[in-house]
Design goal:
It is built from 12 helices and 6 strands. It has helices at 112-128, 136-169, 174-199, 203-206, 208-227, 236-265, 271-299, 304-331, 340-353, 359-366, 408-427, 437-467, and strands at residues 71-79, 82-88, 93-97, 105-106, 379-388, 393-402. The strands form 2 sheets. It has a 4-stranded antiparallel sheet with strand order 1-2-3-4, with no helix packed on it. Strands 5-6 form a two-stranded antiparallel sheet. Helix 2 runs parallel beside helix 5, helix 2 (136-169) crosses helix 7 (271-299) and helix 9 (340-353) crosses helix 10.
Length: 490
């Protein structure tokens, strides 16, 4: 005999239906009423639930009269976010969570609303969030939501302002002028995007967070420039081109760094899934921004004066929220690739504390450093050996090495420190040829003291030279003195 127990998945009530097939063999033993099975194994939920016909209750349950304890059925439901199991208490069939969630979900619709909310939340999470991502991913998505909504609303207001500017400035030849200006601004913007991407390609990896946040600030400023086009309609082409160049640069950085950000969250080699979910998030969040901008337009549609001034009121608020969301979101991006700055943090932790920090710890120490320049010091000092005359007499001197990008103030500071160092060496017993550790210690002390003295007197020195008529804005250097050093990642 063949028997199958069917359970529809669309209903919480089980309807038992026995389907008996034809006998293919004759047995001499009667069918026992007491059914026996091997220990139950967890089953994965499918469209139909099947259990052996010879099912036997678990041990410890009396067959006679007495209190009925819940029976565990051999059916386990595994969903994203929890594991549940069906229980029979003698009158009702219940679904019990085994992961510490709700105690039970009876199938008699007593907690239907709670179950509906749970199912809906799980469906929304599966729609937006990849299945396997680190814990910091949810924090990143929350800040991304804040950033995309207000950024999208600002873009809508900026586009409206540009359309208004075209209508005001070129009312007599609107079609041709609008088309020409739009093509010119887009063409110049894309050209600038190519130049920027080619010149800054390596920085997308080594300084990802700093470059991305810097270009985000540039994007917010470009929206502000677009909002000014109705105020200066005759300068539409100039303002729109400048804004579009900034937006194209920001877009190129966003696309170039997006893969690295997504890869940091793809802990199960699910880069494709993370990227796909990111696109879904962007589309949905941007649509919410469009709805926000539409609501603002509807509120002030009866007052054109207020509608025209609305972008200038909401721009600083929305831009601040947008940049704050980007900044906080980048703090929750833990990049695993090594750069000079990250490796330096790891090595310092290893030397000082004796352990290797995790990517999360390095990310907190690394920060974004938006206002940091290329280097803290634009010069360094060292001892130089030179030989004078025919006799090749050895003489030691101080060599000032200037870094690429060093300005006049850096040169003055370096020479001032070199002079203080030369004075200190004349009174010191320091010898560069000494091989013991005392020479290195003495040199470090001299460098530090001369640096402090130079920093203390540099401002006063600049004021005195200016009062006496010295031109301190520029220093003339010969060809040899104009040589500069640079690091590989500059």
């Amino acid at each position: 005999m063949q028997a199958t127990l069917y359970s529809p998945t669309s209903s919480n009530q089980f309807h038992f239906q026995w389907i008996a097939g034809d006998f293919h063999s004759v047995t001499s033993k009667p069918i026992s009423r007491k059914l026996k099975i091997s220990p139950p194994k967890p089953l994965i939920a499918t469209n139909s639930l099947r259990t052996p016909i010879n099912y036997e209750p678990e041990e410890g349950v009396d067959e006679g009269p007495g209190p009925i304890f819940p029976e565990r059925l051999p059916v386990v439901i595994r969903r994203s976010g929890g594991v549940s199991r069906y229980m029979w208490d003698g009158s009702n069939l219940k679904l019990v969570n085994l992961d510490g969630g709700a105690s039970s979900l009876p199938l008699d619709f007593e907690d239907g609303f709670r179950k509906l909310c749970r199912v809906w939340s799980l469906a929304v999470r599966d729609f937006f969030i990849p299945k396997r991502v680190p814990e910091n991913y949810m924090d990143y998505v929350k800040w991304k939501f804040l950033h995309r909504v207000f950024s999208s609303a600002l873009q809508v207001l900026a586009t409206q302002a540009m359309f208004r500017a075209i209508g005001i400035g070129y009312s007599r030849s609107l079609p041709s002028a609008a088309a020409l200006n739009w093509v010119l601004k887009d063409g110049l913007g894309r050209l600038s995007r190519c130049i920027y991407t080619a010149s800054l390609a390596s920085a997308f990896d080594t300084n990802l967070k700093r470059v991305r946040f810097s270009t985000s600030v540039l994007f917010s400023l470009s929206i502000g420039v677009e909002l000014l086009t109705p105020v200066f309609p005759h300068q539409f082409l100039l303002l729109a081109t400048i804004a579009n160049i900034a937006k194209q640069i920001s877009l190129s950085c966003y696309l170039a760094t997006g893969s690295a950000v997504h890869r940091s969250f793809a802990i199960a080699d699910n880069l494709g899934e993370v990227s796909a979910k990111a696109q879904i998030q962007t589309v949905c969040f941007d649509n919410l921004g469009l709805m926000l901008a539409a609501m603002l337009n509807m509120l002030f549609k009866n007052n054109q004066r207020l509608l025209a001034g609305l972008p200038f009121v909401v721009y600083p608020i929305f831009a601040a929220i947008d940049l704050f969301g980007i900044y906080q979101g980048l703090k929750h991006v833990y990049l695993q690739t090594l750069t000079k700055d990250r490796l330096e943090i790891i090595l310092n932790s290893w030397i000082e504390l004796g352990y290797v920090p995790s990517p999360a710890e390095v990310s907190k120490k690394e920060g974004i450093n938006f206002l940091r320049s290329k280097g803290e010091d634009y010069y360094f000092l060292c001892i130089e050996n030179s030989y004078i005359g025919w006799a090749r007499t050895k003489q030691q001197g101080i060599l000032l090495c200037l870094r690429e990008g060093a300005g006049t103030a850096d040169i003055v500071m370096g020479l001032l420190q070199a002079c203080y160092l030369r004075k200190a060496l004349s009174y010191s017993r320091f010898r560069a040829c000494d091989t013991d550790g005392s020479a290195l210690t003495e040199w470090s002390k001299l460098i530090e003291n001369s640096k402090v003295s130079a920093l203390r007197d540099s401002c006063l020195l600049d004021e005195k030279m200016t009062e006496l008529g010295w031109a301190v804005k520029n220093i003339l250097l010969n060809t040899e003195e104009q040589a500069r050093y640079s690091f590989v990642d500059d």
